[in-house]
Design a protein that fits this description.
4 strands; 135 residues; alpha+beta
Length: 135
């Protein structure tokens, strides 16, 4: 999933506050933008790990446009981080799925040409997540 993040420079403290608006409470401080981008990735992973341990749903990211106009983020620098949420969805279970042969071939061709999916199961999981986000 792609989460928008905002980097806010705090003049008095001479450091950055980096926040993930779609993950309440997920933030960190850093002395530079580069360090901040690294630190927020660790913060997101830690936050999602705790949420998974407590059985909470992984938040669905909203669009950048949803957040950019909010007063709390005025003057911030925006970025998008891509987070693989699969490890935070719980234990994997093997299931049997029946699909038309042509559909399976199309899925397999896409998976073979796009390393983002890695496997047919990875593709089906991502497709399911995308559909669940719409609901």
């Amino acid at each position: 999933m792609r989460y928008p993040i905002v980097l806010l420079y705090l003049n008095q403290e001479q450091k950055y506050l980096i926040q993930v608006p779609d993950i309440p409470g997920c933030q960190c401080y850093a002395s530079s933008m580069d360090k901040g981008l690294d630190e927020i990735l660790f913060a997101i992973e830690d936050h999602l790990t705790l949420m998974a341990e407590y059985g909470q749903s992984i938040p669905t990211p909203q669009s950048f446009e949803t957040h950019v106009g909010k007063h709390d983020y005025r003057g911030g620098i925006w970025a998008i981080v891509d987070i693989d949420i699969t490890p935070f969805l719980g234990k994997s279970h093997k299931i049997n799925v029946t699909l038309p042969e042509l559909l399976i071939k199309k899925i397999d061709n896409l998976v073979a040409s796009n390393p983002e999916y890695k496997t047919r199961s990875g593709f089906l999981a991502k497709a399911a997540i995308n559909e669940l986000q719409k609901a």
